[in-house]
Amino acid sequence: MTALIARTKARFREASKSLGASAVGALTVGMLRTTRYFDPIKTADLFARIAQLIGPRLREHRIGRANLVAAFPEKSPDEIDAILAGVWDNLGRVGAEFAHLDKIWDYSEAHPETSRIELSPRTYELFHQLRLDGKPGLIFASHLANWEMPALAAVAHGLDAAILYRKPNIASADRIIQEMRQVKMGTLIPAGRDAPLRLGEALRNGQHVAMLVDQYMGNGVEVTFFGRKTRANPTLARLLRQVECPVHGVRIIRLPDHRFRAELSEEVKPVRDANGQIEIQGTMQAVTSVIEGWIREYPEQWLWLHRRWR
After folding, report:
1. Nearest residue to 123 (alpha-carbon basis) of 245, 256, 260
2. Nearest-5° Cα angle at 305, 17 to 80
3. Choice among 15-29, 245-259, 266-280 with the minimum mean pLDDT
4. Mean pLDDT, the chain, integer
5. pLDDT exceeds 50 at position 2
6. Alpha-carbon dihedral 219, 193, 150, 218, rounded to 10 degrees
7. In terms of C-beta density within 10 A (0-12 exposed, 13-18 middle, 19 or more buried), how is residue 227 classed?
8. pLDDT digits (tens, 9 = 90+) for 148-161
9. What is the pLDDT at residue 179?
10. What phi and psi, each to the nearest 5 degrees, are found at residue 23?
11. Cβ pair 59, 104 in contact under 8 A
């Protein structure tokens, strides 16, 4: 009898979880589809205000504060609060902008002065070097400002790209998100067991493989980030061992008046061991150090709300 009750409870919990996920998925789909009917700039302002209102009440706010205090021990509580307010502001804007992915990248090479996007001459030069050098490439990014935009930029300007992404747990939400991403984002490769094989194949076919590399990975390699040990996804360095090619970082910076700046880093050289082989840990440390430098410049635009150190 006890075993029967336990099984019944387990089935009830599973059914409840499934129903809850379905409800969240339906809400996500409805919100994304509805948001597309409204002015993207006004909606971004609204979502930012809502996020700033709700965010401090959530568990993630406490995680963000702990992360910031550890990363910036020299900053005052007021400075930490200001950064956190910016984090929620940015996250709200990203949510609104996601519904308009097909319109948000509006850079015109012929008329850059009319665009919401800024590119420095060096970034422009590096991008076209990547596009025209006849080589595959590895591109890393982080959760800064709107982290969906680099993939949009690549496809908009003719860079053959394959993008590694993480699928949402909720199937209905995943479908609508894929539908929106596939508009202008190149080849999408979901994270999973076969992802390294597919990414390696993309490199061998001459594509440019891009991925976010700034989140904690339990079975990753140890790196130092803001003076503390954490673990990074080694996929980029392992792919580089298979297909040696240029490695660049890309970041988006959110500017006033609903504008953005896109920047490509100089080539990040891999670290090699005494035999000349690419060293996985050292190379991921080099990449992590670039990202840390970016975040130190614009800490309010990075996603401090996840547990980067464990």
Report:
1. 260
2. 145
3. 15-29
4. 86
5. no
6. -10
7. exposed
8. 899 888 888 889 99
9. 59
10. -65, -45
11. no
Return the closest-CA partner of residue 142 out of 236, 242, 15. 236
What is the rounded distance in angstroms from the CA atom of residue 130 to the CA atom of residue 198?
A: 21
Taking alpha carbons only, the member of 61, 83, 58 closest to residue 72 is 83
Q: Which two tokens stand for residue 103?
A: 């319109």
- Residues 30 and 9: their CA atoms lie apart, in Å, by 31
- Using CA atoms, how far apart are residues 64 and 82, in angstroms rounded to an integer? 12
Alpha-carbon gap, residue 243 to 200, rounded angstroms? 8
CA distances from 289 to 210, 223, 229, 292 (A): 18, 9, 12, 5
pTM of the model: 0.86
Task: Count the residues in the chain.
Answer: 310
**For the range 230-234, what are the long-range contacts, defined as Cβ-Cβ under 8 Å and sequence gap of 24 or more?**
230/308, 230/309, 230/310, 231/310, 232/284, 232/287, 232/288, 233/284, 234/280, 234/281, 234/284
One DSSP character per residue, 20-66 reads HHHHHHHHHHHHHHHHTTS-HHHHHHHHHHHHHHHGGGSHHHHHHHH
Pure H helices in the chain: 2-35, 40-54, 59-71, 77-98, 101-104, 121-132, 149-156, 171-181, 195-204, 235-242, 280-297
Instruction: Phi first, then psi: give them for residue 94, nearest 5 degrees.
Output: -60, -40
